[in-house]
Specification:
Layout (H helix, E strand, L loop, with lengths): L1 H34 L6 E7 H16 L2 H31 L10 E8 L7 H14 L5 E7 L5 H16 L4 E5 L2 E3 L1 H6 L4 E4 L4 E3 L11 H6 L24 H25 L5 H4 L4 E3 H6 L5 E2 L2 H11 L1 E9 L3 H28 L2
Parallel strand pairs: 2-3, 2-10, 3-4, 4-6, 5-7, 6-9
Antiparallel strand pairs: 1-10, 7-8
Helix pairs in contact: 1-12, 4-5
């Protein structure tokens, strides 16, 4: 019995060591993988949301209605579908006989999704999705973008906004729906919409610019640690983590921040000319209904309502581009999700205990 106990302990230690070595190897592999140029190949997935909602409706019918009622509804739907097909066929024939150049297909709405982080990491996928849509869209089609972002780096969100400008340059109508948040760089993207829709309690705004970083110069000085910066150009370095911050450097950064803020304000004013820009560019945020009162959004509604309504009069397709992920990337994603779940549960438990 004692032998089994010792053997079990040895086995547990061995498994722990092997697992630790495996994690280290994966971590090193992930770093080296990211150091190399990533594989830019991916796949485009296109799904018909009309079919999705029809399937949901069918499942509810089979669960709620009796068989005779279901058969009657299905018969009416088949009859309606045949009529619509005949109408489209006749429209094509009329267009061909009249040598009509404009398309006679049913309107198509392409649904894209963008969830932004500090670096607007999904811009690469957004680029591919927009390229795919432009290759197919015609004059009667439309793009609906579900946008969620608290903002981030100016250059990253500037690029993401430029991708949306490609749609406007092609005269493709763009509707943007915000269910949760479009702040700072997120609103920089959102204000490009021909029609901007927000949920009642979505967070909108934060038209401002922020620069912040810790500075350990006094800690180094206290411990007699020298920190040298060798640079050419008076303002090559202004605020640093370890160097002494001078008033001249601080003033320069303040000047740069204000210049970017002016550009941001001009961007919003150019694309939403009816807003009182000085009133909304204070860095504040508002919920959807308040933002609508200030002219920052056009309508209060959720993206779900927009898509369901669109399916009644158009063919609605969700377009999603996904890059191939290496084993290391998948492992990193699983690890990140696990940490996020642990952190979320800790926050939830802390909040629950607070009100018990």
């Amino acid at each position: 019995m004692e032998f089994l106990s010792e053997y079990g302990l040895f086995l547990a230690k061995a498994v722990t060591i092997v697992a630790a070595v495996f994690l280290v190897i994966l971590f090193i592999g992930a770093i080296s993988q990211r150091a190399r140029r990533p594989d830019r190949k991916g796949r485009l997935r296109v799904s018909c949301l009309n079919d999705h909602f029809d399937e949901l409706q069918d499942m509810m019918r089979f669960a709620v209605l009796d068989k005779d009622e279901v058969k009657r509804i299905q018969k009416e739907q088949r009859k309606k579908h045949k009529v619509e097909q005949k109408e489209r066929k006749d429209a094509r024939k009329r267009a061909e006989s009249a040598e009509q150049k404009e398309p006679v297909n049913r309107k198509r709405i392409y649904v894209l999704n963008f969830t932004g982080d500090m670096e607007a990491g999904e811009v690469d996928c957004l680029r591919e999705e927009i390229s795919a849509v432009i290759s197919m869209a015609n004059s009667i089609d439309e793009v609906l973008l579900r946008l969620e972002s608290p903002g981030g780096m100016v250059n990253a969100y500037g690029l993401a906004s430029s991708q949306l400008l490609r749609l406007r340059d092609q005269k493709i109508p763009l509707t943007i729906c915000v269910d949760k948040v479009a702040a700072s760089g997120g609103y920089m993207m959102a204000c490009l919409a021909d029609k901007l829709i927000a949920a009642p309690f979505a967070i909108i705004g934060s038209i401002g610019v922020l620069v912040q970083l810790p500075n350990f110069h006094r800690v180094l000085k206290k411990n007699n640690v020298d920190f040298e910066i060798i640079s050419a150009g008076e303002f090559k370095r202004t605020l640093t983590v370890f160097g002494e911050i001078t008033q001249k450097g601080r003033d320069k950064v303040q000047e740069d921040v204000e210049n970017i803020h002016d550009l941001f304000k001009g961007w919003v004013k150019d694309h939403r000319p009816d807003v009182e820009i000085d009133r909304i560019s204070t860095g504040e945020t508002w919920v959807g209904t308040q933002a609508m009162d200030r002219g920052m959004v056009d309508e209060i509604k959720t993206s779900d309502e927009c898509i369901v309504e669109a399916c009644e009069n158009a063919d609605v397709f969700e377009v999603d581009y996904e890059f191939r992920k290496s084993i290391q990337d998948r492992f990193d994603g699983m690890l990140e999700q696990s940490l996020n779940r642990i952190f979320s549960r800790w926050i939830e438990r802390s909040s629950t205990e607070k009100y018990q």
